[in-house]
Write a structure and sequence with these properties.
By secondary structure, the chain is mainly alpha-helical. Helices cover 72% and strands 0% of the residues. It has 3 helices and no strands.
C-alpha cells in the first residue's frame, strides 16, 4: 500500500511537471534533498528509499488537505 501511494504521488508530480526531470522543479528538489555534489550523494538504493518516503509524505499531505 505504501509503495502504491508513493508511485501515485510521484506520477501526479510527474504529470504536474510534464515529466521534465531536468527541469527547474526536479533540479531544485534533487539539490534540496541530496545537495549539489553528486559524489557526496547517498547510494542509489538510499536515494530511492528517500524518494519513496517523500512521495508518501506528499500523498499524506494531499489526503489531509482534502479532508
Amino acid at each position: 500500500m505504501r509503495l502504491l501511494r508513493a508511485v501515485i504521488a510521484l506520477a501526479r508530480l510527474g504529470i504536474a511537471t510534464r515529466f521534465r526531470l531536468g527541469g527547474a522543479y526536479w533540479s531544485w528538489r534533487r539539490e534540496t534533498a541530496f545537495g549539489r555534489d553528486a559524489s557526496r550523494w547517498p547510494s542509489a538504493a538510499h536515494r530511492r528509499e528517500a524518494m519513496i518516503e517523500y512521495a508518501e509524505w506528499v500523498a499524506q499531505m494531499r489526503s489531509l488537505i482534502q479532508r
